[in-house]
Specification:
The protein has 293 residues and is mainly alpha-helical. The chain has one domain. The protein is 68% helix and 0% strand. The protein is built from 10 helices and no strands. Helix 1 runs parallel beside helix 5 and helix 5 crosses helix 7. It is globular and about 60 Å long. The N and C termini lie far apart (43 Å).
Length: 293
């Protein structure tokens, strides 16, 4: 299979999987005849494709993560505007928007300071591969937010019950973990004495990827908050935190970062010890050690 064929297959697969889940979970239709959730998923993809045009033309990836976050905000705000403004729905929209504003601004600032994102070095020049990457972001936004979107678009009463409050609690814990982990790593990298070293203090002493643990936890919280108003095939949208976990641990995220880390520090005894004693994702505050190296 050629590279172009792989890219086209990836684009089609992303569309088919995402639209199939959205179609199964949709119960309302617009005047256009399109199920409401499907319309929002298509909007997510269209935003990515429109952003891809200048990104490819100018060969830049600097706005990739920022556009992903903006897509979450657009979907949440639009869904809230057509919803019945139930308290639970408002809480879900607020959680998604707060998270997207924080993460989007953080990632954009980081790539602007560094000047590039190494993930895109070999992808940008290839039209179809770069388009596939933007299409995957549309799938990422749609599937992570599908439980929350479905809850926002339902006409069912959605009070601040134990499910919503528990979900908010999980989201807050995950959000704080992600923020703290990002700030700790940013501060670590800003110190010249840490150049060429890896972080293993703070939350990074308890997990090799605490920011990803926080992200998985916060999306689990949003799914929990959405659960009480989901019914029938809408329950398929609870795939959201499972999808986040799978993608961050098996596709990108952990797999890519640890491959890079092994190339840099694979022969370092201190790094080998860090790998042995520190969980990949779940925080373990009982891990011993944790010095900056």
């Amino acid at each position: 299979m050629t590279k172009n064929t792989q890219s086209i297959t990836g684009i089609l697969a992303a569309l088919i999987v995402t639209l199939s889940i959205a179609t199964a979970a949709s119960t309302q239709a617009q005047d256009t005849g399109l199920p409401l959730l499907v319309s929002f998923v298509l909007l997510a993809f269209i935003i990515q494709w429109l952003a891809f045009i200048p990104a490819y033309a100018f060969q830049t990836e600097k706005y990739f993560d920022l556009l992903g976050s903006l897509t979450y905000i657009v979907l949440a705000a639009t869904a809230l505007s057509v919803s019945s403004l139930q308290p639970g729905s408002i809480a879900i929209a607020a959680m998604v928007i707060i998270w997207a504003v924080r993460l989007g601004s953080f990632l954009y600032t980081r790539v602007k300071q560094v000047g590039h994102d190494t993930r895109f070095r070999s992808i940008k020049p290839d039209f179809l591969q770069f388009l596939m990457t933007w299409t995957f972001q549309g799938m990422w936004v749609s599937l992570t937010f599908c439980a929350g979107l479905t809850a926002l678009l339902t006409a069912e009463p959605h009070p601040l019950d134990v499910w919503v409050l528990s979900g908010c609690g999980l989201w807050l814990a995950g959000f704080m973990i992600e923020v703290i982990a990002d700030r700790q790593k940013t501060a670590f990298r800003l110190q010249e004495s840490n150049s060429g070293k890896f972080i293993q203090h703070g939350l990074w002493a308890w997990s090799r990827h605490p920011n990803y643990f926080g992200e998985i936890l916060l999306w689990t919280g949003i799914a929990v908050a959405a659960f009480p108003v989901l019914e029938g095939l809408q329950l398929v949208t609870l795939i959201s935190p499972i999808f986040v976990f799978f993608l961050l641990t098996k596709i990108s995220g952990v797999r890519m970062l640890e491959a890079q880390a092994r190339r840099r520090w694979g022969d370092d005894p201190e790094y080998k010890l860090y790998l042995q004693r520190t969980p990949s994702i779940v925080l373990n505050p009982f891990v011993r050690g944790g010095q900056s190296h």
